[in-house]
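Milestone M4 deliverable, item 7.
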Amino acid sequence: MSYRNMRRAAALCLLLVMLGVGLSTSGPSAAPTEQRVTRVARIIDGDTFVVAGGDRIRVRNFDTPELRRYGCAEEKKRAIAARKAAADILADRKVRLTLAYRDRYERWVADVVVESAPYSVDFVDAMIVRGHGARWNYGKEPKPRWCPA
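Output delivered:
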């Protein structure tokens, strides 16, 4: 490998580390079990959706306000906005899922990358940039609060 290629590889590794890509370890199994490319059939809320074939997907290490069991009017308003943002990001695009494990509701918990030619976009990053959600390490951190104190 040439010096130039080694520098490029090192720069890419540094960028991936800074973005936190692939470094997250939450849930019963840190190792992904399967990768799948599919389309989203229905959005449930900002962090949960159904893919073609019927599997429900919960986005790993991410939380948005609750659409059903909200704690205040502000949380409901933010949940509706998060659901709309998720629909906009996922609309008519393929998604690459890295399935980690099934949660207590039998949903697949997965890392989600949106295939948007010529680039791929991390779903969590796209939602956070738009202001709809927060990184959350399930079971290891307190759940984000969406209602004013």
